[in-house]
Structure formats: structure tokens, C-alpha cells
Amino acid sequence: MNNQLNTTLEWLDEYHQGVRYGLLGKLILEESSTFQKITIFESKRYGKALLLDDCWMTAEKSEKYYHECLIHPALCSSNQIDNILIIGGGDGGSAKECLKYKEVKSIDLVEIDIKVIELSKKYLPTIGGNAWSDSRLHLQIKNGIDWVKHIKENSYDVIIIDGADPVGPAKGLFSNSFLKDCQRILKPGGVLATQSESPESFQEIHINIVKVLREIFDYADPMYGSVSIYPSGLWSWTFASMEKPKYMYPKKSRVEEISKNCQIWSQRWQQGAFNTIPAFIEREFAKT
Length: 288
Ligand code: SPD
Prior knowledge:
Helix content is 30%, strand content 30%. The chain is an alpha/beta fold. It has 2 domains: 10-59, Spermidine synthase, tetramerisation domain (Spermidine Synthase, Chain: A, domain 2, Roll); 64-286, Rossmann fold, CATH 3.40.50. The strands form 2 sheets. A 7-stranded mixed sheet has the order 8-7-6-9-10-12-11, with helices on both faces. The protein has a 5-stranded antiparallel sheet with strand order 1-2-3-4-5, with helices on one face. Bound molecules: spermidine (SPD).
């Protein structure tokens, strides 16, 4: 374990395929959990930030560009939103967005690494906000892949997969068997949402997860936006449902309730974001 406080400004970079994605700031803490290396960095531009295994995960002043986009297309459109499952999401940002809805009764947040939760609560408290003390939030410090295997069918109205890149502990969150279990435990009329990497810097992984979801669910569509601290800045989230592409049709009453509390997401933003699919990616999906 290497705890250190550095008072001079330095650059911290994520390296990906010969490109560096960096922020200027101060290193606050660096330690290893059972699962991964965890870094907290205080950047000048985006405030305190969390890195896992040297990859940017979230930052106080940019988290909205990621969490609002992952959550609201699913929660605005699912038939019901009583029971939510979040896999990963140990910084609390996804839970905070879900808890903006009065209708939400219960959230199981299944995070494998308790250290991520502890350090996020301590150093990035604004990301989870009041979620940590909300009685609707139930923390489960468990492996999400095992969790979904043992849950009975039709248990959740919405499933959110908020993991890291598919290396290390998050690798299985992109697998066929895990996503099949998610489909089995999702209620009819429910929506699944997952972060689905960048069509530029993680092209193959992005294409693959959308294709796998289309094999398992009746409908799956990627939506594109920008998260400036992630490789390439261009990011995607993919939504899946049975019978209808539910996520394309947000319910008016929920949109009215939620949009005033959002900085990035709106119904209009969402419509554009589903349509900004790069042409070569669209051609890729058309191939059988
Ligand atoms: N390349 C980073 C991908 C990280 C996606 N998940 C971030 C977790 C934020 N709750």
C-alpha cells in the first residue's frame, strides 16, 4: 500500500493504444485492493477523480456526462421502475441518478470492490450525493456475475451495468453468459442499460457488445455522447429490451419530473444521441 500526498502539480495520464489522456493536478492516494489499483487524483479542470488500474473512471465535475446518459434513457422508459439492479457503480453516480425518481423503491447495487465504495464516499462524496444515506439503496459487496446467476427470473424492472473496461474484474460484464442471465432476471417491459465503450478507441469491443445484446434481446441500440476524460472522448451506452425498443420512448410524466434535474440528458439530447451512430459502425451492424 502506498499512501502519499503530493503538493506539486503533475500530469496523470491514461495510456491507450499510443495515445495519452491526461489531467493536471495532484496525486491524493494510490493503493491496491484485492481486485485492482485504485487512484484518487485532484485535477484542476474536473475536480477529484477516480482511476482503476490507471484508467479514468469518473471525476466530480464531469461525471454527469456519463451517469445521466447511462441512467435516464432506461429509467424514463421502462414499464415500471420499482426494483433496480446496478452492477458495478461503486462511485455512487448511477445510484444518485436512479434515486432522482420518486417511483424507485429499491436498488441493489452490487459492487465487487468495497474499497471503491469507501474511497468514493471519502474523496468523491458529491458523485454519490445523498444516495449513500437513502434507505432505498442496498449495497451488496459481491461479484455481479455470481449475483445475476442466482437471482430468479423476472426480478428487476431495470438493470444497469456500470463497469470498467473489459480487462480485470469487469471483463465478465461483457460476456454472453452474464448478459443472458441479465435478460432472464429482467421483467417483461424492462430495460437493460450498459456502458459500451468507445466506437473509436475500443471499436471491436463496442461492436461486439451491441451484436451480443442483439442476439440475446429482441432490441438493442447504442447511443453516443462525449465523456472528455475517457479514451477518444467519444463514448457509448447501449440499451436493450424485449418486444419493443422501449428505451426509444421515454414516458412524458417521467421526462417532466427528471429533465429539470439534469445538466446533460434531455429527451431531445437522447433523440440526437441515438442518431449519431458513426456510418461505418452502422454498416458493421448490418452485416450478418
Ligand atoms: N474507460 C472507462 C470506462 C469506465 C466506465 N465506467 C465508469 C464508472 C463510473 N461510474
